Amino acid sequence: MKGTIILFCILPCVICGTHLPEPRRSSLFAVTNAEIQGISQQLNAADVNKAEPGDITINLQYKVNSNQTGAGTDYASQKLFSYVNETKLFSLPTYSRFLALLDNYVKGTGTLEIVNSTEVEEQTAFIDEIFKTSIFSILSNFLIAKGYYTSVESFKDDLKEMWFGLYTRSKGPLDSSGFEHVFTGEIQRKKVSGFHNWVQLYLQEKSGQVNYLSYSVNKTRDNFPGVLAFQYKWSSYLKNLGSFFIGSSPEFDVAIYTLCYITRRDKGCPVRLGSISLQIQTHSWTNSFYGNGKRYLASSYPKI
């Protein structure tokens, strides 16, 4: 059901004045790598909504070696996901709020994203839900203690703009956001761009929109989340190498990416999840701003 249309827009500089770069926070690198690894372990341990052994079965099939060629070759005769316990996982409040967001976007860049009142309510409901979790209590307390925010509400408000604020990837209409890019994926210049969420991947594969081709990196363990990097096609468009957490909850993905975006923006961010050590790569959007010169999140993903 469509409600009142709300457009997020950025006024031209002739009207609003030139945007100044985001001020460099004195505490920007006050967080040590050891602290980031420690808080990431806490976030992982607090992820009570992640999949448990038996909730997800994946079928990796063929591993592509680094010296192999043939981008787009289908080496997998079967789907990546053999089983997902939808009844259990997708009925959890954060998952159900997350699922409601996935059909709100036009995947091709260059098309104006029109955000109606219902979709704004879905964004707010998702953020409210994830802030009820222990994961976001831990993250909020950490970021406030480090001086990035003065309160949970200030962090919550900034997170919504950071992830859901619209900007243009096509030098035209407001066609993209950090959430759309990272969690639902986009088609840009006839290639898959972003798309780093296992729930969206599973649903798109289930519906026949994703064709899994082969994998190159497997950092899965007995307990979730695991980390995979692989090649696939979305419709007819190729993702030469996509990296994903497998089995993590939506709130965990938002939290770990936000942690790294705030503390190690545009840099490799060292995290530790159980026995898995890896880096998260984040990118900020520098062509437009929100608030007092703050940068939108452009992308975030496990660095493979």
How many β-strands, per DSSP?
12
The oligomeric state is single chain
Strand neighbour order, sheet with most strands: 7-8-9
| Helicity, as a percent range | 25-40%
Low-confidence stretches: 1-27
Number of DSSP helices?
A: 10
N-to-C order of helices and strands? EHHEEHHEHHHHEEHEEEHEEE
The major beta sheet can be summarized as:
3 strands, antiparallel
In round numbers, the mean pLDDT is 90
Alpha-carbon distance between the two ends: 41 Å
Supply the helix-strand structural class: alpha+beta
What is the molecular shape?
globular
Rg on CA atoms, Å = 19 Å
| Range of strand content | 25-35%
What does this structure look like?
The protein is of the alpha+beta class and 304 residues long. The chain is 32% helix and 25% strand. The protein has ten helices and twelve strands. It has helices spanning 13-16, 33-45, 86-89, 93-99, 117-130, 134-145, 152-164, 178-184, 198-206, 250-263; strands at residues 5-6, 56-58, 81-84, 115-116, 186-188, 191-193, 210-218, 226-234, 237-246, 268-273, 276-290, 294-303. Strands 7-8-9 form a three-stranded antiparallel sheet, with helices on one face. Strands 10-11-12 form a three-stranded antiparallel sheet. A hairpin with a 3-residue loop joins β11 and β12 (294-303). α4 runs antiparallel to α5. The longest helix has 14 residues, at 117-130. The protein is globular and about 50 Å long. 39% of the residues are buried.
